[in-house]
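Researcher: Here's the sequence for the chain we discussed earlier.
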Amino acid sequence: MWNKVGVVSLGCAKNQVDAEIMLGLLRENGYKIVNESSQADILIVNTCGFIGPAKEESINAILEQGQYKKTGSCRALIVSGCLGERYSRELMKGIPEIDAVVGTGNYTRIIEVLEDVRKGKHQAYLGHLNDFTDEGLPRIISTTGPVAYLKIAEGCDNCCSYCIIPRLRGRFRSRKPSSIVKEAKSMVEKGIREFIIVAQDVTRYGEDSKGKYNLVTLLQELCPIPDLKRIRLMYCYPDRITGELMDEIAGENKVCNYLDIPIQHVNSKILSGMNRDTTEQQIRMLLKSLRERMPGIVIRTSLMVGFPGEGESEFQDLLNFVREGHFNHVGVFAYSREEGTRAADFPNQVKESVKEERRIRLMSAQRQVSRKWMTARLGQICEVLVEGREKEGLYYGRSCGEAPEVDGLIYIRSQSPLPIGSFVNVVIKKAYDYDLMGEVYESRK
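Model: Thanks. This is the structure I predict for it:
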């Protein structure tokens, strides 16, 4: 009887939610979830296929897990996620250890897939890209502490010239508010206190509802949930951040004063080539408005270097913009030439060595900016979610200003034990490039 399953999930938060649903379905159907691959009868690798490094990481993970067919108890190896959707034929032909490939629209069929594998069927399960996540699906939360991702939409309609996601995830489609709120309430009842709202573009939420709902109305339905402490917005496209949304964030205590806004670049020629609907001037106006309406807001962005046609002049525009200090947190990626995208056929492709050199220069500039933002928080008191203990007397966690996985941490010195998952007030005492150090704040009566 094959009933012990191990799951390795790679890539973005949206992919992590898919893996959590597969875990829930497996457990509901009598499978035992194991953490050690060497103990698993069935191994599932939930892959990412967005850019070159992610594909390489996914291939390595598949090959690594495939070794357990020889050295462990593994009887079946399943590949799911974006890489599977994109390269199912090549994977099954090139890696004989793979027993089945499950595309992005078929992960809810994981029980059926395993039953077929038991019968000796070896095939790919593709298509169904316009299916929806259902709030009734079981899910095992894999994030640390009382925090969970809440996926509010599937797919993408933005059609950036460098991106393959619309072909792997289908058209953008919003979940109904009632479905999202029902799932959210269920998770809060189980102890979740912070939701991280995710989609390929959360600010597009509701555009396909013919005006029935949008991101603001969704937040207004989520915030009244008792015992919910925080809501954090990720993947907000700059051209869809409205004044109404800013007002909702500014006026609602449960919504973190934090926005993740992937602008990618600021040079207008590069933005046009990327098929992004913004210009440098529009980005500047948006950032100015955010800082004015919400003093103290923390802004994160993602930037891309080495897009076709990016010469030193265009890169300098981006570098100088970063040096101006607009962003608290920045992720920098090198452009990856992906077959099937329009940008792959653009002239003036940039050498890999130049991309990497620019990535390092940009991160170096942001490190100086980040240190200034961190230093500005000295003496401030913030509410921190305690997520773990580094050693005796030293804990770590996050305030509203730090998202999990991608941002830094706040370390907390405390002589008294701090329960993991609790919220404590911390006064910031030391600042580093990306992290902070503080002490539990005790107000004098």
